[in-house]
Known about the structure:
Elements: E1 4-7, E2 10-13, E3 18-24, E4 35-41, E5 48-53, E6 60-62, E7 70-75, E8 80-85, E9 94-101, E10 115-116, E11 120-125
Parallel strand pairs: 2-11
Antiparallel strand pairs: 1-3, 3-8, 4-5, 4-9, 5-6, 7-8, 9-10, 9-11
Amino acid sequence: QVQLVESGGGLVQTGGSLRLSCAASRRTFDFKPYVMGWFRQAPDKEREFVAAISNSGPTTNYGDSVKGRCTISRDNAKDTIYLQMNNLKPEDTAVYYCAAARIDTPSPLAPLYAYWGQGTQVTVSR
């Protein structure tokens, strides 16, 4: 079983920045062949695609609501992906989940991701 652990969430003011991290267990997860992604879910809302990144290239894909304000990256040597979020807005408040999919192309479709972290809370205040 692949284990993913998010960190870096917290409380920030509008316009602030956060960098989320997601670490994968090394002995149970071959990081390289997986597409890694970030999703978020606000209270009473559906889970929303944020960003994803392939293992080579790398190729990236961003959700419309965050495009231009976030950057996804990965460090295969550390089995870790990151989400740098800038110019945060109250609408970004949500639990952020990292996920892994055994696919080649970054996808916004949550059902393709078989492995999920526990989530990290991001709260953006006025």
